[in-house]
Design a protein that fits this description.
- It is built from 4 helices and no strands.
- With about 90 residues, the protein is mainly α.
- The protein has one domain: Metal-sensitive repressor, helix protomer (Methane Monooxygenase Hydroxylase, Chain G, domain 1, Up-down Bundle), CATH 1.20.58.
């Protein structure tokens, strides 16, 4: 079973929260709110998308490349890759 299928509900909940954040950005623009507030909303949305991306990437590495919970050199490298990717996309 693919990790996105296994984690489907959790991932869909994240997407729904992101949709709500994008709608909040749209409302703020429509209502001509202060640019500082809009930038804050944009940053929050960007962070949420980054977190979703990191979660899907981690699942991909764990499910399709190598299990980083193992005790091999490859497993340690996979875990390092996951940590770098998490830092990069957030």
């Amino acid at each position: 079973m693919a990790h996105t299928t296994r984690d489907k509900e959790k991932l869909l909940n994240r997407v729904r929260r992101i949709r709500g954040q994008v709608e909040a950005i749209e409302r703020a623009l429509t209502e001509e709110r202060d640019c500082g507030e809009i930038m804050h909303l944009l940053a929050a949305c960007r962070g949420a998308i980054g977190s979703l991306t990191a979660e899907v990437l981690e699942g991909h590495v764990r499910s399709h490349i190598v299990d980083p919970d193992g005790d091999s050199k490859r497993a340690r490298a996979a875990q390092e890759l996951i940590e770098v990717l998490k830092t990069y996309v957030r």
